[in-house]
Each structure stands twice: as C-alpha cells, then as structure tokens.
Specification:
The protein has about 325 residues and is mainly beta. It has helices at about 1-20, 35-55, and strands at about 105-110, 115-120, 125-135, 145-150, 160, 170-180, 185-195, 200, 210-215, 220-230, 235-245, 250-260, 265-270, 275, 295-305, 310-320, 325-335. Strands 2, 4, 5, 7, 8 and 9 form a 6-stranded mixed sheet that branches. Strands 10-11-15-14 form a 4-stranded antiparallel sheet, with no helix packed on it.
Length: about 325
C-alpha cells in the first residue's frame, strides 16, 4: 500500500513538471535603451552625489561601465645628465705654406773689412762677403753683383761674378775692389745680386742688400776720451786717455798749455816716448807709439801750488818721431783739485 502511494506521488510530480515546460514563457518588460549622452550625464550626476555624501561611487546595474583610464606603471626615469657650460674652443689657425723663392741669399759673415774699419783717403781695399744660396735655384757664372745705393767707392755698377755653380744651401765668397773716398767721414755702399734672367735679389724674403761700411780718416788722427788729475810725490799730474783713430801709428807727441787764470801759455817739446799704460800715481812714460784703435795715456806734470786752477791743453800727435810725418791736434781742459 505504501509503494502505491509513492508511485502515485511520482506520477503527479512528473505531470506537473511536464505541464510547466509546455507553458509559454513570460517575457519581462525591457526598459528602453538609454542614449550614450544620457548614460554619461547620469553617471556624472551619480558621482557628484556620491562625492558630496562621502560614499564611494557604485555602478548601476544595467549600465555600461565607464572603463577607467589606463594607469601606466611607474618607470625608473634616470636623472638628466649634468650639462657642462660650453668652453671656448679656439678655432685652429690656418698656417699658410711658405714658398721658397728661386733666388734668395743669406748673409754668413764678412770675410774682409769688418764694419767701421778705418782707411786713409784714397786707400784701395777688397771687400769680401760670404753668402749662402737659400733659394731653390742654382747660381751660375752668369749671375752678377750690382750696386744698389750709397757710395760705390770707385767700383762699377755691375760686376761679373764668374763664380761657377752655387747649388742651394752652398756658400760662396763674393768680392769687390773698392777705393776709400778722399774726404774724411763714414761711408756705406749697398749691393745686390742679379740672376741670369735679370732678377735682382738680396738677403731673405725682403731682398735686403748686403753692404760695406768704412770710416775714412787721416793718417794721423786721435781722440781724447777722458781727463783725470793724479798726485805724484806732491805734484799734480794731468792724465789724458787717448785713442788712435787714424790709419798709421802715432809715434811722437808735443803741445802747449794755457793757465786760464793768468792766460800764461807754456809750450812743451815733442817726446818720442809720450805714452803710458799706467794710470796710477807717478806714471812712467815708456811707450813710443800706439797703433790704430789702441788706447793709452798722455800725462803732464803741473807741479804744485796750482790748486783750483784750470788749464787748457793742446796736444799734437804725429806719425813720426820728433813731430814728423802727418799730425793731428786736439784740445782738452783740466782743473787742479
């Protein structure tokens, strides 16, 4: 009896289930879809309300969620490298290439006649220069020595060198025969070279001339360089330092002196040993002559008792003993202390 009740209940349940499956489904009323603008506005209003109340924003059911903006993960950004202040880098200068000319000379030395050599009027001499070929062309026998300026001293305007061949960097001695002028004084003559193509050139890139420089003086000529007073066994000694500026030896000396307080003039004769090297007390006169450019002393004993007196001397020096030959005269004054 119990089994029949269970079976009947199962059949009834099955019938109810089958009936439910055959019923038409009930369709819920769907709301009208909202436009995108309406959804955005509602969302903004809702967020404002939630922010004002302090609550977190919630998402309405059935509304399209607004995706959050992408949040990039922080990256390890390296600090910018330190920027050094700019430095003034010098602009490399342009060095032009030097062009060595074909014809150019360089001075090496004066072989003869150093500058300022003294000659007597009318003296003949030979000037020789040593030059170096500093150009790129060889000099040949058709090169000439040509006068440029100054005093020719009796030479021609153009002199054939006839030197053979002088290659670059070789040296050569070039000479010219000259005559000292007749008047006293200093004289200079400037010279240049001329190539076989008539190019005139001189020393260095600026073509400077090479020259001869002499002094013309008389055979007898001297200069008083200084005066001094000395004591010798109580006597006052006047000493005169003299230089032979002439062309010949000076071999004798004489002269006179004038007392400028009394105008008394005393003459002293020629001595053939008038010079001394001693400039100390009591000089001894033992030197008979002085050569050109030599410097020695002339002395005179004034005695004693002339303190404060000034004397003017006139010295006469000659090229021969006893006042002979060519002579020259110079004056100088001394004052006794």
């Amino acid at each position: 009896m119990m089994r029949q009740k269970i079976t009947l209940a199962a059949v009834i349940l099955l019938i109810v289930l089958l009936a439910g499956c055959n019923l038409p489904p009930s369709t819920p009323e769907q709301p009208e879809p909202l436009s995108a603008q309406t959804l955005a506005a509602q969302t903004i209003d809702a967020q404002r309300t939630q922010f004002a109340s302090g609550s977190q924003p919630t998402q309405d059911v059935g509304q399209s969620p607004i995706p959050p903006a992408d949040t990039l993960a922080p990256t390890n950004t390296s600090p910018p490298a330190a920027t050094l202040p700019p430095t003034n880098t010098p602009v490399p200068s342009f060095t032009p290439t030097k062009t060595i000319p074909c014809n150019r000379a360089g001075f090496v030395k004066d072989v003869t006649v150093p500058d300022g050599k003294i000659y007597a009027p009318g003296t003949t001499f030979t000037k020789t220069w040593r030059l170096r070929n500093t150009g790129t062309c060889s000099w040949n026998g058709n090169y000439d020595l040509v006068f440029d300026s100054g005093n020719k001293m009796g030479a021609a305007d153009v002199i054939d060198l006839t030197i053979g061949t002088v290659n670059p960097d070789d040296t050569v001695d070039i000479s010219v025969n000259l005559t000292a002028p007749s008047a006293s004084g200093d004289y200079r003559g400037d010279w240049l070279l001329r190539s076989d193509t008539n190019e005139v050139f001189g020393l260095g890139n600026s073509d400077e001339p090479f020259y001869v420089l002499i002094e013309v003086a008389k055979q007898a000529s001297f200069e008083i360089l200084s005066t001094n007073m000395y004591k010798c066994v109580g006597d006052d000694i006047a000493a005169f330092r003299v230089k032979n500026t002439g062309t010949d030896n000076l071999e004798s000396a004489g002269g006179s002196l004038k007392n400028l307080s009394t105008d008394v003039v005393n003459t002293f004769g020629f001595s053939n040993t008038p010079f001394t090297e001693n400039k100390d007390d009591c000089p001894i006169l033992t030197i008979s002559d002085i050569e050109p450019d030599d410097i020695y002393y002339l002395t005179y004993n004034l005695g004693s008792g002339s303190s404060g007196v000034k004397f003017r001397f006139e010295w006469k020096l000659c090229t021969q003993d006893g006042g002979g030959g060519d002579c020259d005269t110079q004056e100088a004054s001394v004052q006794v202390p």
